[in-house]
Every structure is written in structure tokens, then in C-alpha cells.
Amino acid sequence: MGSYVQSALTNGEQIAYEGKVSLWSLAPLFIIGLLLLPFWGIGLLFWILAVIKYFTTELAITNKRVIAKFGLISRTTVEINIQKIESIQVNQGILGRVFNFGSIVVAGAGNPQAPVPGISNPLQFRREFIKTQENIGSGQPSVGAAQA
After folding, report:
1. Which of 19, 56, 59, 144 has the fewest CB atoms inside 10 Å of its own CB, making it the most exposed?
2. Which residues pair with 120 in a beta bridge?
């Protein structure tokens, strides 16, 4: 199964930054799974859910838009033109600050807010977005692909 972000790229579009789901954000699912494992293996379902969430959530900044994709069987995508994005909000709780994960809320002109929960290093994502948006505004080519 290929990457949704790679398959969604248009002509001349390049990935500037890819975000990842933090394993720390999935810790509650792993812990509940561990506690429920003795009960007919129900805990395995929580572990499977965490693994699916980890591997099926994609987040990328390209030189043209921000792309987020969630889900395995039922897919939800958010794709917003980078020039139409008005703000990127970072929400981090206490554990998020300690373990460097949080939610990103992308708000665009005329678009509803698009929350992306449990992202590893959300402040780096915001910095990369701002850098990419400034490069586009100044007419500079985007920087090569980087990963979180």
C-alpha cells in the first residue's frame, strides 16, 4: 500500500516536510490494551487500533498545500492550499509538552478548522510551515524533503 501523500502530489509539487504521529500520544491505547490483555485478549484490539492509527495517519507540507490523511478502510483527508491557510495552532497538554507531541489545528480562509491530533514535534511542523509559506511568498524554491 503506497503513501497517500505521494499519490496526491500534482505536477511540480514537492514535499517540504512530513509529520508523524507520536507513539506517546498512543500510550493510553497501549496501556489499556495491556490492562485488558488478560480478559480474553481484548487488549489486542486496543494495540491493533494504536498500530493502525500510527501507520495510517499522514501529514505533509508541500510547496503548494498542507495534506492530512486519516484512516485505513474509511479515509478522511484534509488538503488546504498553503496560500489559503491563515493560521496553524498548536495545542499541547502537560504530557504533550514533556514528551513533545500535540495537536495541530489548521485554519484556512473559508475552510473549517482541521485538527490533526497526536503529532510528534508539532512546533517543528509549525516552523516548517511558516518557512515554506515564506519561501513561496518570496518566490524561492522550496527546500528538499525533510522528515520528523
Report:
1. 144
2. 101
